[in-house]
Amino acid sequence: MANGYMGQVLHVDLGTEKTEIKPLDDEVRQYIGGKGYSARMLYDMTEPGIDALGPDNPLIFGTGPYNGTYGVQSTRFSVAAKSPLTGTIGNATCGGDFANTMKKAGYDFIVIKGQAKKPVYLDVNEEGATIQPADQYWGMTTGEVQKQFPKGTHSAVIGPAGENQVLYASIISGRRAAGRSGLGAVMGSKMLKAVVCKGKKKVEVARRDKFKNLNKWMINYYKNHSVNGGILPSMGTANLLMTTAGKNIMPTFNFQKGSHKLAWKISGELMRDEYLEGREGCTSCPIRCGRKLKSSAPGSSVKGPEYETLALNGSNLGIFDLEAVLKQNELLDELGMDSISAGGTLAYAMEANEKGLWNNGLKFGDTAAVEKALEDIAYRRGLGDELANGSYRLAKKYGGEEFAIHVKGMEMAGYDPRGCYGQGLEYATTNRGGCHINGAVMALEATGLLSVDPLSIGAKPELVIFQQNLMAAINAMIICTFSAYAVVPSIAGALDPQGALYNGLTTIVKNSGPVLQLVLKMKPFLPVLWYEKYLAYVTGESYSLGRLTESGERNFNMERLFNVREGFSFKEDTLPGRILDEPLFDEQEKGVPLGDMLPKYYKTRGWSPDGIPTDRTLDRLQIRR
Question: CA 178 → CA 183, 282, 358, distances in Å?
């Protein structure tokens, strides 16, 4: 294989200490690569009901054909395994430089099975891999351990949370995180502290001149885009804090409210104006959305937190102290934990304590207690040993399931769907649980340049499906999901929300269900976005928007097939009681009208009323059982 693909898969068995390089199957082209083909591999390599923390659960590091090309935003990698948090398919993507170096070493995928008897790390190069002792690194934080490896290498590591198998432990690379699904716990269960890559191979690009010209155009387009060239470079995703607060969808006090008068105290604007020292970002990305902020320690800086951390570990815990959230952010990264699940779990525990269901001593707004709890979770000490299992399991034990804010066992992200119904449908149907980036529909309803009526269900099933298919393809290439912001041109942000043109556009989208259904069935034949063009120029193959979204549809259904095999169905495609039953806006009698959207979603997807892909759908998508 060539033209975007290295053509090799590195297989490692930590139990037998055997490594082997195998050719990459050409079937990968159907799934593009990355997160999509990882689902296919995971399904083929596992039996139903395996222990997510056992030796038979493969941990799969993946790249796509776009990675290693040094195209705009081409530096993300994926990780996949059965999730110990949810029991569903688990996956996450991560930025930094690891993806480029993995491709330079010559591998599209690294598949790790078995469990080592003692702590080890994997040293990967062009000749293969060696399993090295890591006793000296066990117990180190993610920042400490990454400093131990030679210059010219890049690594993906776990911290104490992964070592102690916290069910929402993350994998860290550089200052970026593969945060969701608890894949750090899978890595820890294998006694694997780090995967370290180095190499000098080059990724071949079929149409180099066209690729370079497109890349120049993209860089210029991004620089002149109001979000990718303005808001993200100055504030990162933290810009969303005041937006969600203004839209009444910012999680506050465990999703009891959608806004707070003190939101500005943890806002991106405050960070930009009073804390910003510099910017940083992934290789080949002109946005550079990472921010270096002033630290209380002289001569040092701290990483600027993402919106999800500000919302879930700030407002959702009743904390409106930026210094406190900055400290929590550093703790979460160094210990190696998903900030969304950590914040959601602590918020549940605080409300359970407040309601007298569980006497745990945690209270909203208590910053010192939160910092201690985070460390206790990572080391599974005392109360932390229970908190390490997530809100779903805690609610089963102590009660209050209606305010355990999760989907399929994964804590929900920082957008209250009672103010964006399509996002609610996305949460309910996303294969890995309460995730916001497997469709990012909230950006089209409430937080983006153009907002479709958020409290309408018109065209929402079709819109969610289209977005889920597109994002599944993006995560298979793999390109950064922030690229999707630029799909809506800057001019949309300049329109008067009360004006006739703006209202006309949103009305068209609101009533676009039949047209979207036609698009989903017919598939556009021409390249429309840069995604298809990049893939065509890298691989040398013909790519249209139709082929791209069909690959995404295949990937999404492949993930669903894994979940069905694990016993999941329509019963798990739901939302917490608070989100379904408690209104957040004056015009609401209840919360998200999920029951009014789900049947149409299933039908449009080609699934049975029980939420299972039909044989006809699987045959159309050429998915092997």
Answer: 8, 14, 31
